[in-house]
Design brief:
By secondary structure, the protein is an alpha/beta fold. The chain contains ten helices and 13 strands. It binds S-adenosylmethionine (SAM).
Length: about 375
């Protein structure tokens, strides 16, 4: 049982909401209790005044602290959570609804006009907004909270009805169909008529993922990141296979064979390495490879006759320059890669200069031979 105490200047706004459908039944079944209080009744001022003009000037009226604080103090119990409805609050979502459904007493404070005297914040636990837009008052937002929280209170609706709801588990809901089987040429998917519940569950999960990916890529990314840490699985929609595993800001690696999405659990060995460790290994690799190239370059520079060797080393340097850009730059950064490129360029220049000099000497000697 969860109790909501709503503090508002407009109690009548709640009449319809509390006397219909699931919320009405939840109240009758004593699964939730909702008390609406007009905090105007707590004003000590003439005509029960609750608002006044803003200090510093400006439009509109500001709600005074005193009547609200007095109402809060009267309603507050040991385990109460006091929530201020405000467009400046934390954006409400399903996860917050889940967490709040575990509370036993929520006091919801509805503002109006220009909002509250800032000092009200010392008397509340949390500020919640229902979205990035401004409403005339906190009544609709508090109804939104009561509605979404109440349906998560055990017994209000059957648990199965919300466990696949949109936003549970960061996924949108799967598509649902009812009679008739065909409507204006549009058929209910065969799998839903198959009676095979394992297949139906798989289809629904797949649809949830597809729809979230398409309509709410932000949620999908969060879901993937939440499930597998800072890694994402890149799939190929055309054949429903997993084509790549991407560790954010780090390595991409390809599964050996194309793996179907439903086989994800069959990936048996993935080694996840600290990105700083990857940097260290990548740096060591680059330096080792460059040291080998330097040795090889030295050999060909000291051997007048080894043209083939020189061509080979030049090819290897080109290859390493390509690898630096395509493979290593993303881990080691362009600054480091540019430095290594300069080193490699210097090696290349050394070999090229030597080969050019040799060619010139040969040309000279050939010419001299002809001249004799
Ligand atoms: C017109 S609004 C005041 C807005 C205030 N001047 C501001 O811009 O933050 C009056 C009251 O409506 C409620 N309210 C308006 N939009 C809301 C939202 N998106 N979420 C929660 N409460 C809201 C709040 O209780 C607020 O104090």
């Amino acid at each position: 049982m969860i109790k909501f105490d709503v503090l508002t200047l407009f109690p009548n706004m709640f009449d319809g909401f509390l006397s219909e459908s699931i919320i009405k039944r939840a109240i009758e079944d004593k699964l939730i209790k909702v008390d609406i209080t007009n905090f105007r009744d707590y004003s000590d001022l003439k005509n029960n005044q609750v608002d006044d003009t803003p200090y510093g000037g400006g439009e509109g009226m500001v709600l005074m602290c005193d009547p609200i604080v007095k109402a809060i103090e009267e309603k507050k119990k040991k385990n109460s959570k006091i929530i201020l409805m405000s467009p400046q609050g934390k954006r409400f979502d399903q996860k917050m609804a889940m967490d709040l459904s575990k509370e036993s007493h929520l006091i919801l404070v509805c503002g109006h006009y220009e909002g509250f005297d800032e000092r009200i914040k010392s008397f509340i636990d949390e500020e919640i907004s229902i979205g990035d837009y401004v409403l005339t008052g906190g009544e609709l937002p508090s109804m939104v909270l009561i509605d979404s929280i109440s349906r998560l209170v055990p017994g209000v609706i059957t648990e199965g009805s919300y466990e696949n709801d949109s936003f549970m588990d960061n996924l949108l809901d799967y598509p649902t169909y009812t009679k008739p089987r065909e409507y204006r040429g549009m058929k209910v998917p065969d799998v839903l008529l198959s009676g095979d519940h394992k297949k139906i569950d798989e289809w629904r999960k797949e649809k949830q993922i597809e729809s979230t990916k398409e309509k709410r890529p932000d949620l999908y990314k969060e879901k993937v990141i939440k499930e597998i840490g800072k890694y994402s699985l890149i799939d190929d929609n055309s054949n429903k296979s997993l084509v790549s595993i991407n560790i954010e800001d780090s390595y991409n690696f390809l599964p050996n064979n194309k793996i179907k999405k439903s086989d994800l659990a069959s990936i048996s060995k993935v080694m996840i390495v600290e990105p700083t460790f990857i940097d260290k290994i990548a740096r060591q690799n680059v330096e080792k490879k460059i040291a080998i190239l330097m040795k090889q370059a030295n050999i060909v520079l000291n051997d007048e006759t080894d043209d083939e060797g020189a061509m080979y080393v030049l090819g290897e340097i080109d290859r390493m320059q390509g690898l630096l850009l395509t493979q290593y730059a993303k881990y080691l950064g362009m600054e480091y890669v540019s430095l290594m490129q300069i080193k490699l360029e210097a090696l290349k220049n050394g070999i090229n200069t030597k080969m050019m000099a040799k060619m010139n000497i040969q040309n000279f000697e050939t010419k001299r031979g002809r001249g004799r």
